[in-house]
């Protein structure tokens, strides 16, 4: 056919697919895509087997298993002091990406403006454009990727429908502080702007700092969808299961799209996750688990020429290469795969054309054996 009109004419293959294919082709140590290379807890796998044998094999309710939603309601209230009604304000989704996509689909109309903070995870912009929205980027500034509050305030206008934030932040590993959350609340107060808060790494935070969920802030919570990921928390990214919480009035609109998008999510996993969540240590100890990996990786590369500011959260670490090369990050990322057999992600793919910093993103959610191999290579790069 020669008359196809693309709704996303400027969108190609994602960087994760491109880098992943090159990594396979060159047999590279792969620290690019964000998934662990170690198995989940056997106890969780056993619970899935148990669910299959107990015949949890037919459709779950559209909103998700009631028992799991009740457990998540309790969990959210215990952690953040905010109660979400399990019947009307919590939905199990096919991964956080589906939750993000469905939220945008339900609320963004042609001509609506959606503010994103760049660097921004790469699924946000295409979804906005698909439904006729206009992306309004606000660049994070400096080596610490701080919010330009005046720029953000100026970006909010009569046509602003939504603001998307990500905490902990991928790809930078930044955590929003109390002052940041108060500024978000101050800027959105009195507006009709919906806040979409991507909190999939909520339990992967380091150095004793808390995760400040949007749900902790009354005005923000009243206008917000908050997405979370079981895949990130329990090393099961291939299961593609997450959840979203929001006030009843907002969730009602979400369900109108969700029910015709996926309707319901893999039921045996919902049974298993509900049982697994009963032991709070399974998620409360996750930060220390990944901090050990972060620290192990950074200790292993301390003699390299890469510059480091330790990640505050997620399982990603930015490495600066100002002392190594003047190449742009895409050029260097491709060269490292071909010449050194090491795969990373150039963060310019999450940024706009004004981006000019030299960073590559590495995933340290790997076994020590893989991290050792990667460190050996990074030390050799001059």
UniProtKB/TrEMBL annotation:
Cofactor requirements of the protein: pyridoxal 5'-phosphate
Domain of life per record: Bacteria
Positions of the Aminotransferase class I/classII large domain: 28-377
Matching Pfam families: Aminotran_1_2
UniProt keyword list: Aminotransferase, Pyridoxal phosphate, Transferase
One of the record's GO molecular function terms: transaminase activity
Protein name: Methionine aminotransferase
Native species: Flagellimonas spongiicola
């Amino acid at each position: 056919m020669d008359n196809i009109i693309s709704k996303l004419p400027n969108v190609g293959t994602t960087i994760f697919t491109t880098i992943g294919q090159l990594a396979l082709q060159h047999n590279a140590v792969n620290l690019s895509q964000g998934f662990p290379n170690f198995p989940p807890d056997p106890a969780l796998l056993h619970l899935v087997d148990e669910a299959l044998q107990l015949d949890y094999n037919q459709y779950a309710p559209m909103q998700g298993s009631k028992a799991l939603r009740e457990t998540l309601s309790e969990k959210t209230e215990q952690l953040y002091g905010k109660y979400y009604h399990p019947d009307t304000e919590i939905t199990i989704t096919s991964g956080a990406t589906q939750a993000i996509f469905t939220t945008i689909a339900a609320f963004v109309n042609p001509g609506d403006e959606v503010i994103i903070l760049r660097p921004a995870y790469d699924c946000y912009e295409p979804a906005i454009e698909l439904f006729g929205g206009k992306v309004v980027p606000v660049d994070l500034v400096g080596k610490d990727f701080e919010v330009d509050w005046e720029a953000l305030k100026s970006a909010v206008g009569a046509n602003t429908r939504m603001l998307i934030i990500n905490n902990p932040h991928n790809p930078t590993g930044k955590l929003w502080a109390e002052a940041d959350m108060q500024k978000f609340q101050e800027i959105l107060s009195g507006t009709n702007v919906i806040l979409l808060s991507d909190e999939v790494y909520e339990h992967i935070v380091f150095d004793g700092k808390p995760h400040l969920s949007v749900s902790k802030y009354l005005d923000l919570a009243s206008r917000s969808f908050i997405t979370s990921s079981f895949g990130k928390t329990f090393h099961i990214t291939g299961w593609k299961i997450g959840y979203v919480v929001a006030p009843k009035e907002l969730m009602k609109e979400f369900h109108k799209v969700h029910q015709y998008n996926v309707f319901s999510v893999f039921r045996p996993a919902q049974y298993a996750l509900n049982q697994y969540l009963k032991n709070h240590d399974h998620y409360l100890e996750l930060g220390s688990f990944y901090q050990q990996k972060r620290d192990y990786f950074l200790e292993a590369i301390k003699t390299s020429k890469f510059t480091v500011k330790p990640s505050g959260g997620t399982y990603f670490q930015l490495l600066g290469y100002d002392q190594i090369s003047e190449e742009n990050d895409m050029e260097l990322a491709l060269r490292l795969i071909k010449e050194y057999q090491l795969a990373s992600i150039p963060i310019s793919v999450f940024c706009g054309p004004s981006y000019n910093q030299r960073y590559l993103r590495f995933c340290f959610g790997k076994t020590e054996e893989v991290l050792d191999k990667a460190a050996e290579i990074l030390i050799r790069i001059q």
